[in-house]
Design brief:
elongated, Tetrahydropterin Synthase, Chain A, 5-stranded mixed beta sheet, 3 helices, binds zinc ion
Length: 143
C-alpha cells in the first residue's frame, strides 16, 4: 500500500538567550542533581537553533506552500524578536511561570506559531529545537 506523501517546507531561525533551570522548592544541591550546570545560580546562555516545518496545499498559482520570505517575517516576529538576547526566566511574557527547558520552550513556541498562522492555508507540522549541536527536542503534529 502506498503511503500518502507529506510535503514539508522548513525554515531555521537562530536566537541567543539566557536561562536558569531551578526549582525553588529544592536545594541548590538538589537542583544541580536534576539540571546540572543549567542550575547555575546566575544563569547562563545558549545559542538556540529552531527548525520550523510547515505543510499544506501547494498554491496552484505560485507552485508553493508558502514563500520562504513569509516564513522568515513570521518567525522573526514570533520567535526571534521576543526571545533573542532575553532572559527566558524573566523577560518573555508567554513563558511566565514556565521552567524554560527546551521541552517547555518548544511547546510554548508551538502555541505561539499556531496562533499566528491560524488563518493561513498552511499549518505547523514539526518544530525541532537545539541548544547545542549534540541534542535537540522535537514536537510534531500528531505525536
Ligand atoms: Zn542551560
Amino acid at each position: 500500500m502506498k503511503t500518502p506523501e507529506t510535503l514539508l517546507i522548513t525554515r531555521t531561525i537562530e536566537f541567543s538567550a539566557a536561562h536558569k533551570l531551578f526549582r525553588e522548592d529544592l536545594t541548590q544541591e538538589e537542583n544541580y542533581a536534576l539540571f546540572a550546570k543549567c542550575a547555575n545560580p546566575n544563569g547562563h546562555g545558549h545559542n538556540y537553533l529552531l527548525e520550523a516545518s510547515f505543510t499544506g496545499p501547494i498554491d496552484a498559482r505560485t507552485g508553493m506552500i508558502v514563500h520562504f520570505n513569509e516564513l522568515k517575517r513570521m518567525l522573526d516576529e514570533v520567535v526571534h524578536s521576543p526571545l533573542d538576547h532575553k532572559n527566558l526566566n524573566t523577560d518573555v511574557p508567554f513563558l511566565a511561570g514556565i521552567l524554560p527547558t527546551s521541552e517547555n520552550l518548544v511547546r510554548a513556541l508551538w502555541q505561539q506559531i499556531c496562533q499566528t498562522i491560524v488563518d493561513k492555508p498552511y499549518r505547523l507540522f514539526r518544530l525541532r529545537l537545539s541548544s547545542s549541536s549534540h541534542h535537540w527536542v522535537e514536537l510534531q503534529e500528531g505525536l
